Amino acid sequence: MSVVPDPNERAWTLAAMALVCAAFVVRIHNAFAYPPLLDFDAAPHALNVFAFYQGGLPDPKSWSGFHPPLYFAFGALLWRILPDAIPVHVALRLLSATAGFAALWIAWRALRRFVSPADAAVTAALVAGAPVFAIATSMLGNETTCALFATAALARLCAIPNERARALSHAWPTALLAALAALSKSTGLGVIAVVALAYGHAFRRDRPTALRVTLLCVALPALLIAPHYGRLAVATGSLRAVIGGGAPSDAAGSEMAAQPPGERHLADYVLLPSATFFAPFVQAPDMVRSVPGLLYATTWADGHGQFLPATSRGVVTAAALCSLFGLVPTGLMIAGAIRIERRRRAYAAAFAPMLFAALLVAALLVQTWVVPRYSAVKASYLLPALLPFAIALAVGVGVTRGMLRTFVRAFLLLFSAFATGVTWYGWWT
Amino acid sequence: MSAWRRCAFLLAFVAFGCGVPDQQTPTATVDAYFRDLARDPIRSLPLLAPAFHRQHGLGVVTAAEAQRLARGEAGNAENAVDVASVDRLQLGWLAVQSRDSFRALRDRIRVTPGVVTEDGANAVIVVQLQTDDAPAFAQRFALSRAALDGAWRIESVEQQGVVAENRATAFVAHPSESTRRQLAQPMSTH
To answer: Which of A296, A316, A345, B105: CA 20 to 30 A from B22?
Structure first.
């Protein structure tokens, strides 16, 4: 943990907090300003909410009926209690934004374990403005709900107590949060696995305790998620339905089936076209094939052009600047990850979140191979790993010293402010 | 009773007791239809009976059907949409409302209430629709009251007075696959 006495620490923290608040205000604006149902997979998500609103469950064989119920149940509840003046899609977006910022708040607190409060705040501000986070929290969908519970569970893994007596009492809330992540999106299943591994590893020298706590971390979530995932498996007769629904569920095919590239080659995983930085949209040459290019462009810009109109010259320029500026936090993140790897003992508390991030990245790469469509290459799928990415970035910031640190902090805050402005929906009209 | 339990009961009451549907009368249902069209599309879903969706016929197709379309076997895919499950038609209904041009035209439509005929659990409402640059046309809603919850839902829609000049407006007022195909044809064929 690096805590550097700095008379300006409080000023950095306050500036970062102001940016996070501004980002949240922009999300509220976006919830109303972004046209209805342009969000990723908006219509099928809406049908899931409608099913709960009617007091039923989504058809597991429908397009998005395979998604776990938590976000949609909350959405239906909001539909019931909010006045008609607030459109349902707006309420669903506000729910998404609230969950995203709650996840960010938890991550912010967890970061203080690894870096100074100012570095933690600056990192949180950068995440709040980062286009991948900005766009996910501007759209309806279950990604940020999963990110919230995943972040909460992973943050607890950073503080597993040493005492055997507290093992179970600390583990069960973590297991519950992991279950809630899995009840938000199937990505949360990975959180359950990492939670069980982390507690087993933490108490490895006391085998009976390790066994008990691991069993608890598997059994409790299994009990909670069994009704949903069991129903899916029974209804579709396939375990694949857990992540992709049943056979008729690919009704998205009208658009999805026609999406390029249609087949994957190993070269797609090393190709990084210059458009990644100068025209970071899928329409640009070679972008549609490039997995790293699209992942980068959907992190620091709007690679799919789902939120920002790629037809506007001003938007392309602004997105290109975001993409170029994103090189700095990307470099810091890599530097932070290397430092964490080299000083494993000092950063032992980050082990479980980093493991989850590695698993999630690997799973995403497998998905890009199995589903060779550009829409399957989307950085927001990695949002449940918000905490480990933030840890790597914060540690990367913490590595810098003196004037360089001042420059890095200032740059990240300015970049966050710029990106927040770029993702203010409608500025181009 | 603990504060936690009181909160839980209050939440449950608000969630399940206070939700009053818009569809208490046939007129309220039609009013809500036009209020929500392209502005709050999700809220329009409870207003519409499955028959309404089967009538409009706008739906999404599966990957296999899309591939057949791409190979020029359009008939198969269209047939598939014709027999599609309601959820696929609901997806089509929602998706069409997300288009910019759709919303822009919706904002220009003026709705004039007309005749309301109610007969037990069935009702018919006719409204006049017009934009500044196209002739007016009539839209007739057939509604029925569900026995289960007493809500009025739209079963079908018919339009009269639709010509080439107001066909786009008619599509927005009642999006349907048949009107979509007519709009997709060159103007000279009308």
So the answer is: B105
Residues of B in contact with A63 (CB under 8 A): 60, 87-88, 91
Q: How far is A100 from A143, CA to CA, in rounded Å?
A: 9
Strands B110-119 and B134-145, bridge-based pairing? unpaired
Q: In chain B, which residue's Cα lies nearest the Cα of A90?
A: B40
CB neighbour list of residue A26: distance below 8 Å, 6 or more residues apart: A134, A420, A423, A424
Predicted TM-score (pTM) of this structure: 0.91
Ordered DSSP codes for A166-186: GHHHHHHHHHHHHHHHHTT-T
By the 8 A CB rule, do B140 and B158 touch? Answer: yes
CB pairs under 8 A between A and B: 114
H or E segment and range at residue B155: strand B152-160
Interface residue A85 vs chain B (CB under 8 A): no
Q: pLDDT tens digits, residue range A387-415?
A: 999 999 999 999 999 999 999 999 999 99
pLDDT digits (tens, 9 = 90+) for A191-227: 999 999 999 999 999 999 999 999 999 999 999 999 9
User: Which residues of A are less than 8 Å from B63 in CB distance?
Assistant: 250, 252-253, 256-257
Per-residue b/e over A21-36, b at no fewer than 16 CB within 10 Å? ebbbebbeebbeebbb
How far apart CA B10 and CA B30 sit, in angstroms, is 32
Of A36, A59, A252, the CB nearest to B60: A252
